Structure formats: structure tokens, C-alpha cells
Amino acid sequence: MLKGLTRRKAAAAKRNGFARHGVTTVLVTAATMALGLLTGILVARTIGPDGRGALTAVLTTVQLLGWLFGMGCGKAVTYALSRDHTAGGRLLSTWVLILLPVAALAVGIGHLLLPTLLAAQPAETLALARLYLPMIAMALLSELMLGLVLGDQDFRSFNALNFLQPAGVAVAYAALWAAGHFTVEAAVIVQAAMSTLVLLAATALLVRRHGIGRPDPALGRQTIWYALRTHGDVVGGVITQRLDLLIIPAFLPAAQVGLYALATSLSWLIVSLSGALATVVMPAATRRGRSGRELVLNSLQATFAIGGLLGGGLFVFADLAIGLVYGPSFADSALPLRLLLPGAVLYAAASILLNGLYAENRPFTATLANLLGMVVTLGGLLLFLRSGGILAAAIVSTVAYTLVFATAATLYRRATGLPWRAFLPDPAMLAALPRRLFDKPSPAAAGPAGPAGN
Length: 454
Prior knowledge:
The protein has 16 helices and no strands. By secondary structure, it is mainly alpha-helical.
């Protein structure tokens, strides 16, 4: 009986610990979003729709190429290290050797694709994007390092590293604005510098914790197989989320790109904040095994609650908020924003379920949902973008996000065998949530210390 009570106390301590880490992640994400809003306002007020469109075209193109060539390494090393916390040094060295030639290939292909991807942009924007292309390597290596930090269950360091870049960018942007030197070129340099700093900080943390192990071909083959099965989901997700911003510069002028970029960035605040739990769900649920399913479903319900509140408020006050904050030149962003918001809430919820499938060792199953979304996004944009402009892009994106959620829910239910009623909120859980979040467990209930950050 005593052992059973101890196990129940340990399980409660784990749930409370995850709830606190989840709340911390949401709060850090909220702070990051606030910084993003401040920098977005600065960009909009300083360089206007044309400058914002040029900056978006440069940063988004390179970011997307980094995601497309990332091979799913972040999810693969998170899963592997969550299951075997002694493999950190070997995972680090093995995957650095894998990613370096991939990064070189991505940069080369990027040089070939840029003239087509930025066909409607001026020559100066194309030249700047070419100079920024080597940052693809930084993006790939950063995905690896942050994946390893998550695999360590070190959510504190993960949140700190994710906060470092936007905080540094905000400070640098403000300094440039105050000095009267804020330009698209200066903003791109700041982004590159902060990305490099985050990569160096994460690498130093991991080397100090795990050392640099001997490259392990067997471990490489095992994790590459997992990574390749996730890569379809990564590619499909990136295309579903960002294909509109990748294609629009080839069809529409910079001012339209700037208006749509503002609408997507505001709608994506819903995904970033309400879906922040998805980042920590996968490693936490993986370590818990079958009991991690309860964690996934509770996180899904919390995501819907946060997303519904934020999305509803932004839907009602879109015109007022955009006019007051960004100025009248961005007024035409309000309607695309409203069209994007329902899909953004559903996509945030889908990200929880997809990470639940990763924890079930079903990465290829997770891929199917985003592949369907990718097909709808690609087909819809090619059919309707030229005639419908940014409103058509917003409608296509919301339809694709809705399809991803419906598919993810069906696949997760099938993978776990859970009934549909398990997806509904538990009133007792909701009533106990404040106590879980803020009551600290006793030392006896907490049990032995886990990995760093947990």
C-alpha cells in the first residue's frame, strides 16, 4: 500500500512539474511574441510595407530552405536522447557530420532557386538574400542543438535560448532606430548575428554537459531512419505554414507581401502561444511512455482554451489594433488576419497531436496530416493566388490548417486506441489545474532528481 501511495505521489509530482514547465514555456513564448510585436512595429513604422516586404522575403526564404533541408534532425535527436540520456555526445558529433554536407547542398540549391522565388522583387532584395543564404547552415545546426537540449528535458535552457534571439534583435533594432541607421540591410545583419550567438550558446551548453563523443554509425543510421520518417511532416508542415509567404513574392508586389506578412505574423501569434506546449509535449510524453497520452490530451485542451481566447479577442479588435499599432497604411491587413485566425487555432491544436504521434514512435503517421495540408495549400495557391491575391491566400491557408487538425485527431485516436470522449475536457482536471500549476510538491513526493531542467 505504501509503495502504491509513493507511486501515485511521484506521478502527481511529474504532472505538476510538467504543468509548471508548460506554463513557463507559454509565458516565455508570450514574452517572445511581445518582443516580436515591438520589432514588427518598429519595422512597419520605419521602413513601411515595401521595406517589411523585402525583409520578409529575405528572411522567410532562407528560413524555409533551412527547414526543408533539416532532415527532421531535431525531432530525431530529441526522441533518441529522451529514451537514452547517455547518448548526447555521440548524437552531437554524428549529426554534425551528417548536416555539414546537407547545408552545403542547401546553399547551392538556394542560389539556383532565389531568382524564381523572388521574381517580383527588386535586384537589391535578391542580392541581399544571396548574401544571407549561408545562414541555412546555422539554421540546420541550431535545430540539432535545440533538439538535444529538449531531449535532455532541460526546458529552462530551451526557453532561455529561444528568448535570447528575439531579445537581442529587439535591442539591436532599437539601437539602430535611435541612431537613424535602421535599414533592411542592417536588420538582416542583426538577424544573422543573433542566430549565430544562439547557436554558439547552445553548442557550449551541450559540449559542457555531454562532451563530444565518437561518431556512431549505428546510432546515425537508427536516428536517420526516424528523422526521414519525420521529414515528410516537417516539409509538409513548413509548406502548409509558410508556402503562402514563399510564393507571394513571385506574384505580388512588395507592398502586398508586407500587408500579408503582417496578417500572418499576427495570426501566427496564436499558433506560437497557444501551441507553445507542443514543444515540450513530445520529450515529456516520450519519457512517460503510455502515461504520456494523458499529458497529450490535457495539453490539447489547454491549447484550445488559450487559442480560443486569443483568437476571439484578435478577431474582434483587428481593425482597431492594426490601425493604432501599425498605422493606417496597414489597414488592409485586417481582413486577411480575420480569415487566418480560425485556422491558426486549429493548427496550434494539431501540433499537440502530431507531437503525441512522435512520442508514440509514429513519425510517418504524423507526416500524413501535414502532407494533406501541403497538397491543399499548394493546389489552392496555384489556382487562386493570382486572381484572388492575399485574401485567397488567407482562405487557402485556413482550409489547409483545418484539414491538418481533423487528420491529426483521427490518426492520434487510431494510433492510441482512445475513444473520442477522451479528447473532451475533464471538469475535475480543469478544476485542479490552478493547484497543479502553483502548488509545489513536497520533497518526498518529488522523488529523485531527473535530468537537467526537470
